């Protein structure tokens, strides 16, 4: 069957808001709506209403986690043990497909981001990439030859063990790992926990940003050793293009000449306003549609 | 074409010895020879002589590294910047295929090991696995759905950053990273560097083994977060089946209830005498043969 025309849908499912949108086959946005994240019943009913009013042929759904992504298991398509009240156990894919009868590609928000970069962004000319978001939390997604990395479950790169910056004596903000994971020492909330001020009120010369760049570099270094991607891409609200030179310098310090890495390995997201996930979700909707036909 | 009968060859290319062998389609060994690693010219001539005397239809070659594994690049099939005198730049695959005219599957020794475990060992019932060897160095290989993980290059998991055991004040043995990578604090030579004694002369109650189990657990934890495999398998001469309970306990401490991992995630190699790589190399020879036909 040759598909000549179709409409793609996306759900960017976040802990505080959901973004719903439709687009044509060139990813030109047709409709878009932002809703706040309420109970699963209310929020998913809003999603269903939106896509009943604006029918689509497939949906790409990048979700907050943890989620069940291993096909063929009982947990597939579900939100797992999230601390977000009421959401643990929610059958996202089942609820949507029962109501809308279209294929749904279900993955993590960061996998959607890495896919967006891989299809049309910073990784479009390579075969493998890692995407990190540093925001309220820290997440990472990885792709190799078109397949997401992750066997039993999705990746949890933000909780990987961390070597502390020698001057950083912060006790850490991760409820599970304290200062013993990247999220605990480099996620957005650690800035206020360290300084009493929100990041946007601080001068960029504040040492806290030096620490965060060091940890970003260490995340990239750890990812490189564990996955050997051709691109490592940073998104999220905490660091920007301006941080990249310092991140690259710390990466080189950590490597210390051990491995030769690709030119321009470490880059900032290609898309403004963290839109990698939007592009990725549309591309995943398209992949789901093609797989179903 | 239906292949009815064939002979498989392997080369286990190590820094001190090469193992050459042939087997039938059921991996029953037909001939086997061990040679010491001399110059590339001498060593590869021995390999070629062996396989001219004992012809095979394909060769699985698991090699010490670093090696070029990205097909289509200039480095593919070569030994890269090894400190081993004379070996940097050696064209392993080109030299062998020019002389022997059979397909060669070229990968790292640890990738061969993880493949052996995946085909017939501890990971034979799952879709994804990581294999660590802790010996003179520390290496890791990863497989997901039959494909090795690694985009730009092979993995270098042994050099990933490490959080030191709180009681361990060892300065580290890695020439590149000191005590700032797993190899620097947990590879075999660190035992003698710490204690002045070889591991085999020490009581297993020596705290050095506690440290090594802690680092093994941290390697497994880091790998789980970066790759989410269904099995993490330890081989090599430094730790054994007896270490697994303590490794698992440290892993649970590091996780601290954050993620739910598969039952029996962490296991020791299925094969005695670190034979995972032998099985893997034969299976890779078979894969190369099938891909070529």
CATH superfamily of the largest domain in chain A: ATPase, nucleotide binding domain
Specify the biggest β-sheet of chain A.
5 strands, mixed
Task: Look at the structure and give the mean pLDDT of chain A.
Answer: 96
- Topology, number of strands of chain A: 10
Beta percentage of chain A is 15-25%
Structural class of chain A: alpha/beta
Tally of helical segments of chain A: 8
Enumerate the strands of the largest sheet of chain A in spatial order, edge to edge or round the barrel: 3-2-1-4-5
Gyration radius of chain A, to the nearest Å?
19 Å
Report the top-level CATH class of the largest domain in chain A.
Alpha Beta
Oligomer state equals homodimer
Shape of chain A: globular
CATH architecture of the largest domain in chain A: 2-Layer Sandwich
Relative helix content of chain A: 25-40%
Gap between N and C termini of chain A: 7 Å
| H and E order of chain A | EEEHEHEHEEEHHHEHEH
**CATH fold annotation of the largest domain in chain A:** Nucleotidyltransferase, domain 5
Largest interface: A-B, 49 and 49 residues
Which consecutive residue ranges of chain A, at least 5 long each, have pLDDT under 50?
none
Count the domains of chain A.
Answer: 2
How would you describe this structure to a colleague?
The structure is a homodimer of 293-residue chains. Chain A has 293 residues and is α/β, with parallel strands linked by helices. Chain A has 2 domains: 8-108, 2-Layer Sandwich (Nucleotidyltransferase, domain 5), CATH 3.30.420.40; 122-270, ATPase, nucleotide binding domain (Nucleotidyltransferase, domain 5). The first copy, chain A, has 8 helices and 10 strands. The first copy, chain A, has helices spanning 40-53, 92-100, 109-120, 182-186, 188-195, 207-227, 244-255, 276-292; strands spanning 8-13, 17-23, 29-36, 58-63, 104-108, 128-134, 138-144, 147-148, 231-235, 266-268. In chain A, the strands form 2 sheets. A 5-stranded mixed β-sheet of chain A has the order 3-2-1-4-5. In chain A, strands 8-7-6-9-10 form a 5-stranded mixed β-sheet, with helices on both faces. In chain A, helix 7 links the parallel strand 9 (231-235) and strand 10. In chain A, helix 1 packs parallel to helix 2, helix 3 crosses helix 8 (276-292) and helix 6 (207-227) crosses helix 7 (244-255). Chain A is globular, with a radius of gyration of 19 Å. The N and C termini of chain A lie close together (7 Å). At the A-B interface, strand 7 and helix 6 of A face strand 7 and helix 6 of B.
């Amino acid at each position: 069957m040759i598909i000549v025309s179709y409409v793609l849908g996306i759900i960017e499912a976040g802990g505080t808001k959901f973004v719903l949108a439709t687009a044509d086959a060139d990813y030109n946005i047709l409709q878009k709506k932002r809703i706040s994240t309420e109970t699963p019943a209310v929020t998913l009913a809003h999603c269903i209403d939106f896509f009943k009013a604006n029918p689509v042929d497939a949906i790409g759904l990048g979700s907050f986690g943890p989620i069940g992504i291993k096909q063929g298991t009982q947990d597939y398509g579900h939100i797992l043990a999230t601390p977000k009240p009421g959401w643990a156990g929610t059958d996202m894919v089942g609820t949507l497909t029962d109501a809308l009868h279209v294929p749904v590609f279900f993955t993590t928000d960061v996998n959607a981001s890495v896919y967006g970069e891989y299809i049309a962004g910073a990784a479009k000319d390579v075969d493998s990439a890692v995407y990190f978001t540093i925001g309220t939390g820290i997440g990472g997604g990885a792709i190799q030859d078109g397949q997401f990395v992750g066997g039993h479950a999705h990746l949890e790169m933000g909780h990987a063990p961390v070597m502390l910056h020698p001057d950083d004596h912060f006790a850490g903000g991760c409820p599970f790992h304290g200062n013993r994971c990247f999220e605990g020492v480099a996620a957005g909330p650690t800035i206020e926990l360290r300084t009493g001020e929100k990041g946007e009120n601080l001068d960029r010369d504040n040492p806290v940003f030096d620490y965060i760049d060091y940890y970003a570099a260490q995340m990239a270094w750890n990812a490189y050793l564990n996955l050997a991607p051709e691109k490592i891409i940073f998104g999220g609200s905490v660091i920007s293009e301006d941080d990249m030179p310092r991140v690259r310098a710390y990466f080189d310090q950590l490597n210390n000449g051990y491995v030769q890495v690709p030119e321009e390995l470490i880059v900032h997201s290609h898309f403004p306003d963290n839109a990698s996930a939007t592009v990725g979700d549309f591309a995943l909707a398209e992949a789901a549609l093609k797989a179903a036909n």
